[in-house]
Specification:
This protein is of the alpha/beta class. Helices cover 40% and strands 15% of the residues. Bound molecules: pyridoxal-5'-phosphate.
């Protein structure tokens, strides 16, 4: 039996009755765009996060773009982020007309290193996009302090950290705005594309809510040039159903991560979690010097794994024009060569997890 990296079918099967009913109801309501279904999800998600407002949007990439743009990021600005993230983080910055500037990471946790971040600040820096990678919180206190001193906007890319916390504070509520993706594989995932922006700033929420729907203030009046980046009502309904389960899923992820930690200690580099982070484990990522050989071995054993991410953004052809050379982000580049994401999803069984551990142990033994 193959063990996948993520099992979206098992996730669906676990709540199939509820989901099928919710879909049927939505189809019967014939309300597919905006309306009460989207508003209900926005209220529930804001309450779950503990933010004053949530605005449903089409996907996580648009969440970051709309948030950055509403915070004033535009042509000529620099925005500091990391290169070990999904390309969407940087794309959203580029789409605002700004330039992404990559800071190196704390190698233990794989999130942005505040000291390196500060070294990259220039008079043109407008904002910081913190990526809580794999679900591990960035070290927000020093980041907020740098932002305060240098007058920068802090935007949180929360695509991987639903339910994660920093010193007890829910991720997404610490900076000016938090940007979530509900891509199907995420901790809270739709059955298609979806996303949300959360903030305590009502004016900012209103601006984003308007922009995502053609800048409209009424059916036929637009106050600004917007776009169509709305959250689909069917996905909103599905997400409202799934939201009631997400705390249990996060607990399951954390239990599985703890079992991996215990079983894999001494075999591969297991994830370090700072004591200030409540880690929801979107990904369980180990480090191995012979990563590619380990991945090949696991794949041959029928175990799906992933690399998040094999090509840092400064080495992507899409960002070659930035002229950031190999060697300029040494910790990011080393991580890209060594990280390996293991199967982790709430329905992963003990037996499946034992097979993953056994296959890794076998690889380590064979390597001597
Ligand atoms: C998934 C992801 C995104 C993009 O989200 P989409 O919903 O796929 O557009 C952005 N940033 C990070 C860190 C992600 O993991």
């Amino acid at each position: 039996m193959r063990i996948p990296l993520v099992d979206l079918v098992a996730g669906y099967e676990s709540i199939r009755g509820e989901i099928d009913r919710a879909i049927a109801e939505t189809l019967g309501s014939a309300s597919f765009i905006m309306g009460p279904t989207v508003a209900e999800f926005e209220r529930s998600f804001a309450a779950w996060i503990g933010a004053a407002r949530a605005v449903g949007v089409a996907n996580g990439t648009e969440a970051v773009r709309l948030a950055a743009s509403a915070c004033g990021v535009g042509p000529g600005d620099e925005v500091i982020t990391v290169a070990n993230t999904f390309i969407a983080t940087a794309e959203a910055i580029t789409a605002c007309g700004a330039t992404p500037v990559f800071a190196d990471i704390d190698e233990a946790t794989h999130v942005i290193d505040p000291a390196d971040l500060e070294r990259r600040v220039t008079p043109r820096t407008k904002a910081i996009v913190c990526v809580h990678l794999y679900g591990h919180a960035c070290d927000m206190d020093p980041i907020l302090e740098i932002a305060r001193r240098r007058d920068l906007v802090v935007i949180e890319d929360c695509a991987q950290c639903h339910g994660g916390r920093y010193k007890g504070r829910t991720l997404g509520t610490i900076g000016r705005v938090g940007c979530f993706s509900m891509f199907p594989a995420k901790i809270l995932g739709a059955f298609g594309d979806a996303g949300a922006v959360v903030t305590d700033d009502a004016a900012l929420a209103d601006a984003i809510a308007r922009t995502r729907d053609h800048g409209r203030i009424s059916k036929h009046e637009s106050a600004s040039v917007g776009c169509n980046a709305r959250l689909d009502a069917l996905q909103a309904r599905i997400l409202t159903v799934k939201l009631a389960h997400v705390d249990g899923w996060i607990e399951a992820r954390r239990r599985l991560a703890a079992s991996y930690d215990a079983a894999l200690a001494g075999l591969v580099g297991t994830p370090k979690v700072r004591d200030w982070a409540f880690h929801p484990f979107y990904m369980y990522v180990v480090r191995a010097a012979r990563r590619d050989a380990l991945q090949a071995h696991l794949e041959a054993e029928g175990i799906g794994c992933g690399i998040h991410y094999p090509i840092p953004l400064h080495l992507q052809r899409a960002y070659a024009h930035l002229g950031v050379r190999r060697g300029s982000l040494p910790r990011t580049e080393r991580a890209a060569d060594e990280v390996l994401s293991l199967p982790l999803y709430p329905e992963l069984t003990e037996a499946q997890q034992a097979s993953v551990v056994a296959a890794i142990a076998e690889f380590v033994r064979a390597e001597g």
